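Contributing new records

If you add data, match the layout below exactly. Sequence lines come first and carry their own label; structure lines follow with theirs. Keep one chain per record. Anything else will be rejected by the validation script.
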Amino acid sequence: MADEATTKAEITSVPRLKTQYEETIRPKLQEEFSYANVMEIPKVEKVVLNIGLGEATTNPKLLEKAMVELGQITGQKPVMRRAKKSVSNFKLREGQPIGCSVAEPPDRVDHAARTASRVAKATAAALQAV
């Protein structure tokens, strides 16, 4: 039983971006801004991925496709964002859906970045084929 616990702990790895931040960026920040205490150095608490769609006012299915894609990239269900104010020049009304977003904890940012790059490469390859 103890052997299983140690192997599971060994399998989990620290994300690449987090180790880079801890090893290179934090010391540079401390040196550049002359922080006396390590608790003064800014931390990455979360990363928010956002898709704003101005065309969503006229084409609501476009927003649904964007939400599906963002969900596939991050592995989480996106939150629909709505307009806070009405803007007549953009034909936008208060409360109308205009985008979607997902908040990623810093430990999962690596996974989302890799998946997003794969999706972007596949999209670029598909566009070149056309």
